[in-house]
């Protein structure tokens, strides 16, 4: 029997409920620009993408949906982003000590040194960070749209708020048909969006740790050190890879000045890891750039935040395990700390399950669609990692493929957190152990 008091089981049910409600509202004639009812699959796909803060679309958001419909989409990804941040953080508190949500908690988040009073204080802090950051970014964007780009005050405020909320929640939805490609040379538009995405992609535990200990590296938890260093490394990799591979591409960076090339390469190094805004035409990327994006999207951002993917910590734990085997070390670890066996097994389990799921859905869609395999794989990784970037094939996929992508988005948004928490809390000791025997590996 489903125990709805169990938060690990309740969270997916709540998110599914929001998707159903969002689908119903977006199916109303009021939600579309022409006043007709949106097809059920279109409304369902859009609601799923919004609640899972992915950003994949089958219809052009500012053209197909009315102002009411766009507002509903914004509310859905605000709910999805805030809900995932709070759920992931509270699950982390449970993992740290195994307490229920009703217990007062002074414990660790994902085994770091985040101390809080109770669940209410966690929610309060996440809410404050959400309001402050979204308001600040919205103000900057609205002012820029109005002063520099000649928008009316109401239009500037609307576009500023929409993009601020979308960026903070790593949703990737845009109120412009070309995302932010029209502003690819404007650092005052791209910069705040990048900073907001990076901040929330770090995850709430890292934000709190840095807030408490500032830039005192020695006082940071292992989780914060791994997340921050891994994020910096991946951002640099994305910047260098995008700039090097697209520098002379006439359809992307080629026609730009050197400064604009570096700005857009930096912007795109951030987006594949979670957000999905694009200042460049992803469909025009070279194959090698697409390959780099596979990696960046699959890894994703930090834990207990709005980012998707298997998470930076998961990837670096696996990297440390491989490195320890290559160097013949007994224990795997980073920053003069070793990992527990349970963490190593959780990281391996999450990665294998994620890869298997992406492989299965990619194979299924490839079997029913004539579209190129590399584009389908890109779409599936983007959906699972709740990135939202696309090479432009989403609207061309058959209905069953869109449903499969909805499943990927939902599992990628809610499933990775619940599975990781269940693995951490669900361990049971057997009263016996089998005899050891090692098969040949490799």
From TrEMBL:
| Transmembrane domains' residue ranges | 12-31, 38-58, 64-95, 129-147, 188-206, 226-245, 294-327, 347-368, 401-425
**Chief localization class?**
membrane
Q: What topology does the record note for this protein and the membrane?
A: Multi-pass membrane protein
Query: Its domain of life?
Result: Bacteria
Tell me the compartments it is located in: Cell membrane
Could you confirm whether the keyword Membrane appears in this record?
Answer: yes
The protein's UniProt keywords, in alphabetical order, are: Cell membrane, Ion transport, Membrane, Transmembrane, Transmembrane helix, Transport
Know the name of this protein?
TrkH family potassium uptake protein
């Amino acid at each position: 029997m489903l125990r709805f008091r169990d938060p690990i089981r309740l969270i997916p049910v709540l998110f599914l409920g929001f998707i159903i409600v969002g689908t119903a509202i977006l199916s109303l004639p009021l939600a579309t620009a022409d006043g007709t009812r949106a097809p059920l699959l279109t409304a369902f796909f859009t609601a799923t993408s919004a609640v899972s803060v992915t950003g994949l679309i089958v219809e052009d958001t500012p053209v197909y949906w009315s102002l009411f419909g766009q507002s509903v989409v914004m509310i859905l990804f605000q709910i999805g982003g805030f809900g995932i941040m709070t759920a992931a953080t509270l699950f982390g508190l449970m993992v740290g000590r195994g307490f229920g949500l009703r217990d007062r908690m002074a414990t660790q988040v994902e085994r770091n040194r985040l101390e809080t009073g109770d669940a209410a204080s966690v929610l309060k802090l996440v809410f404050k960070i959400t309001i402050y950051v979204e308001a600040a970014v919205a103000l900057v964007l609205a002012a820029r749209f109005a002063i520099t780009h000649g928008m009316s005050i109401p239009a500037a405020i609307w576009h500023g708020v929409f993009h601020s909320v979308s960026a903070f929640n790593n949703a990737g939805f845009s109120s412009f048909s070309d995302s932010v490609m029209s502003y690819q040379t404007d650092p005052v538009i791209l910069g705040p969006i990048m900073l907001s995405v990076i901040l929330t992609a770090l995850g709430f535990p890292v934000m709190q740790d840095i807030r408490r200990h500032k830039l005192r590296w020695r006082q940071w938890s292992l989780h914060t050190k791994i997340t921050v260093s891994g994020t910096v490394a991946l951002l640099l990799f994305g910047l260098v890879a995008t700039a090097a591979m697209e520098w002379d591409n006439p359809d992307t960076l080629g026609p730009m000045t050197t400064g604009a090339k570096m700005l857009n390469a930096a912007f795109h190094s951030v987006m594949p890891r979670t957000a999905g805004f694009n200042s460049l035409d992803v469909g025009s990327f070279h194959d090698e750039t697409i390959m780099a994006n596979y990696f960046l999207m699959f890894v994703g951002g930090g834990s207990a935040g709005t980012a998707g993917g298997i998470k930076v910590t998961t990837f670096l734990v696996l990297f440390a395990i491989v490195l320890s085997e290559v160097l013949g070390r007994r224990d795997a670890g980073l920053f003069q700390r070793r990992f527990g066996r349970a963490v190593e097994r959780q990281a391996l389990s999450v990665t294998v399950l994620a890869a298997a799921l992406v492989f299965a859905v990619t194979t299924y869609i490839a079997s029913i669609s004539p579209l190129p395999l590399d584009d389908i794989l890109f779409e599936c990784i983007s959906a699972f990692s709740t990135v939202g970037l696309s090479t432009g094939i989403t609207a061309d996929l058959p209905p069953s493929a869109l449903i499969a992508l909805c499943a990927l988005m939902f599992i990628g948004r809610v499933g990775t957190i619940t599975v990781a928490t269940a693995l951490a809390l669900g361990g049971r000791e057997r009263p016996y152990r089998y005899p050891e025997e090692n098969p040949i590996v490799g």
